[in-house]
Every structure is written in C-alpha cells, then in structure tokens.
Write a structure and sequence with these properties.
single chain, alpha+beta, 3-stranded mixed β-sheet, two-stranded antiparallel sheet
Length: about 130
C-alpha cells in the first residue's frame, strides 16, 4: 500500500512539474527483466558461483571423490596444516571409529584396517 502511494505521488509530482519528463517507475523490473542469481550476486557469493560453474568446490560442499584406499590410490585428506587427525570406520557395519594422526608426506595406513590416507595441501577460498 505504501509503495502504491509513493508511486502515485511520484507520478503526480512528475505531471505537475513539467520542467523535465520523469520516466514511469515500474516495480522490480529493469529494462532487461528480473535479474538472474548470477547477475545479482556480489562479493563472496559471486566468487562461489563462479567457482561452482568452473567445476571447483571452494567450500567442500560436494560429496568427496571416492578412492580405492590402496597405497597407489590413497584417500586424499585436505588440510591447511602439516598434520590432521583422521577418523576411519574400518568396516561398513562397524560402530567404533579408529582415530589417528595423519602427517604430511607419504601415504599412511590406518592402524586397524590398513586403508591408506594421504594429506594434501588445501587453500582457503578467501
């Protein structure tokens, strides 16, 4: 209701003051229509959308890739430091988690099941 009053008063002011014609205002519509999310996004949201279009996953929002867990193809664990604690559920129906420290360098084995893990450097998105 307030928007209607403002539009009406702006129209009246434009018609009474004939010095310069004022373009008619429309609600939420630019010359090209309603903007898309990509056109409207700014700042960090725009960076994230651009990265997702390129196939990157800046905040690890997607499901991680699956690896065999062998010495040749270890599970890759991203980290911003040179070590990280890792939890391994060795068997599918296991209720206990085996925790161990993963150090930078060669792939390391889980002490219980023997699955291999390797620490890889991870850059923060901002």
């Amino acid at each position: 209701m307030a928007a209607r009053l403002l539009l009406r008063s702006a129209f009246r002011a434009a018609t009474t003051c004939r010095a310069a014609p004022v373009p008619v205002l429309t609600r939420g519509m630019a010359a090209g229509g309603i903007p898309t999310d990509e056109e409207q996004a700014t700042g960090l949201e725009k960076v994230i959308m651009k990265a997702m279009k390129e196939g990157a996953d800046p905040y690890n929002m997607m499901k991680p890739k699956e690896y065999a867990g062998s010495k040749a193809d270890p599970h890759l664990v991203p980290s911003i430091t040179n070590k990280r604690i890792v939890g391994c559920v060795c068997e599918e129906d296991n209720t206990a988690v085996v925790w161990f420290w993963l150090q930078e360098g060669e792939a390391q084995r889980c002490p219980s099941c023997g699955s291999h893990y390797k620490l890889v450097a991870h850059e923060l998105p901002h």
